[in-house]
Amino acid sequence: MPALWIAHVSVTDEEAYGRYARLAGPAIDKHGGYFIARAARYVQLEGKDRPRNVVAKFPSVEAAEACYHSPEYQEALSHAKGASERELVIVETTE
Questions:
Q1: Residue 31 DSSP code
Q2: What angle do CA 65, 13, 18 make, to 5 degrees?
Q3: pTM of model > 0.85
Q4: Residues 4/63, Cβ–Cβ less than 8 Å
Q5: Which value, in Å, is the radius of gyration of the alpha carbons in the chain?
Q6: Which residues pair with 86 in a beta bridge?
Q7: Distance between terminal CA atoms of the chain?
Q8: What is the pLDDT of residue 40?
Q9: Apex CA 16: angle with CA 25 and CA 66, to 5°?
Q10: Could you tell me the residue ranges of all domains in the chain?
């Protein structure tokens, strides 16, 4: 089953987070993922407001998790740590 990688982010250092974004995209692509929502218009209804919301679709939970743990994504993530506050979850779809 396909899976969604859902991130809610508050960026605290635009320059460092930009480095993350430039590296994260190719890592996600390499693992069969693609963006279906990325920092677009949103409406916060409950919970903590994070102004950057990203959804990527992967072929499976395993592919999304493998991407997260990959050396390429971990290198990207090293730029996001300290440059953002974020939550990330992988959710299997019902498709």
A1: T
A2: 60
A3: yes
A4: no
A5: 13
A6: 9
A7: 7
A8: 87
A9: 35
A10: 3-92
